[in-house]
Design goal:
The chain has 187 residues and is mainly beta. The chain has a six-stranded antiparallel sheet, with no helix packed on it. It has a five-stranded antiparallel sheet with strand order 1-17-14-19-12, with no helix packed on it. The chain has a four-stranded antiparallel sheet with strand order 5-10-7-8, with no helix packed on it.
Length: 187
């Protein structure tokens, strides 16, 4: 099992019509979001406008969840969904999507039959979470709080990319609860 760490300084930031997007990870690592030649991408975006239109991404399966604030998503012809912090929804990136509400969100984008799931875990003080990684790539994001990942310190907004089979342990050693987001990707 191999673990590679990423931190805020490693993340490229770009503008979109409703705010800023921070790319946390893209795979393959030499792919480019603008060229749409990635298999999967995780990012966090600020939604700074009260009403914004999502970029149309045909052929992209999306999972979104607010980290701060709430999102009221309107999928033209496909209904709507209200998401409180850490509630998620999966939708077709090609749908015309409008968002109402200012927030900071977390996105998983999947292309070309790449499969993926997003798990949100709340860890109380001294709580330990053991995760098994089998045939997937696992990405562990410290959304709130500082954690220990095995023997490595995982600070808030750091990302650990776990490749290969094995178990990892995540522990909250702080005096407040922490939130960790785990993406499991099947390539």
């Amino acid at each position: 099992m191999q673990i590679k760490m990423y931190q805020k300084e490693d993340y490229p930031v770009s503008n979109w019509s409703g705010g800023k997007t921070t790319q946390l990870f893209i795979y393959p690592e030499n792919s480019e979001y603008a060229k749409r030649n990635f298999l999967f991408r995780i990012s966090s975006a600020t939604v700074d406008c009260e009403r914004s239109e999502f970029t149309s991404l045909p052929g992209v399966d999306r999972v979104i969840l607010p980290l701060k604030g709430s999102l009221h998503l309107f999928y033209e012809g496909h209904g709507e969904k209200v998401l409180a912090p850490y509630e998620q929804d999966r939708f077709d990136g090609g749908w015309n999507t409008v968002s109402v509400g200012k927030a900071t969100d977390f996105n998983l984008m999947l292309r070309e039959d790449t499969k993926g799931e997003v798990e949100v875990h709340t860890l109380q003080t001294q709580e330990n979470l053991c995760l098994q990684n089998d045939d997937s790539m696992m990405l562990v994001f410290a959304a709130e709080g500082n954690l220990c990942l095995d023997t490595t310190y995982l600070q808030e907004w750091q990302l650990a990319v776990v490749d290969g089979e094995g178990k990892i342990s995540i522990q909250n050693k702080e005096e407040k609860s922490a939130k960790v987001i785990v993406c499991r990707i099947q390539l």
